[in-house]
Amino acid sequence: MQVKKVLTYVAVAFVVFYLFTRPAQAAAAVNGVFDGIIQGANQLAVFFSSVLT
Fold first, then answer.
1. Nearest to residue 6, comparing CAs of 14, 20, 16?
2. Which of 21, 29, 45, 46 places its Cα 20 to 30 Å from the Cα of 37?
């Protein structure tokens, strides 16, 4: 249980460090993640539209 807690703190520290040292790249990474989620949702919508028609 302690290892998971330590790894969580290390991951959060890394994210904070990345945000402060490279904010433009961090914003691009977040935009990329959201673009991927939106693309996946659009593909699911196309799939269900095709199935239901």
1. 14
2. 21
